[in-house]
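Render this sequence as a predicted structure.
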Amino acid sequence: MIDGAKPVSADARLEFDADNASANVGCNGMGGPWRLEGKRLFVGPLVSTEMWCDGMMEQERTVKTLLSATPEVSISGGRMTLRTGGHSAELVRQ
């Protein structure tokens, strides 16, 4: 869920490896180095492709803003929630 709405694409994902986080809502990819400090996730600097994708741009901007704003992270079972004052995302581990 992105701000309470289902992702606009079934291909939406957020992945972490040892050094980088990468996200895609269904069109443009974005990513950068990440670290966790306490309950805050730091990602960036973010780089992303910038193609126009009809119907996906609002969620892409939301995810980019969320990841750039050092969201608070909470994990429960197979779910991770990222939350800032303005946006949130709930992710399910696959």
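Summary. The first helix runs from residue 57 to 68. The first strand starts at residue 13 and ends at 16.
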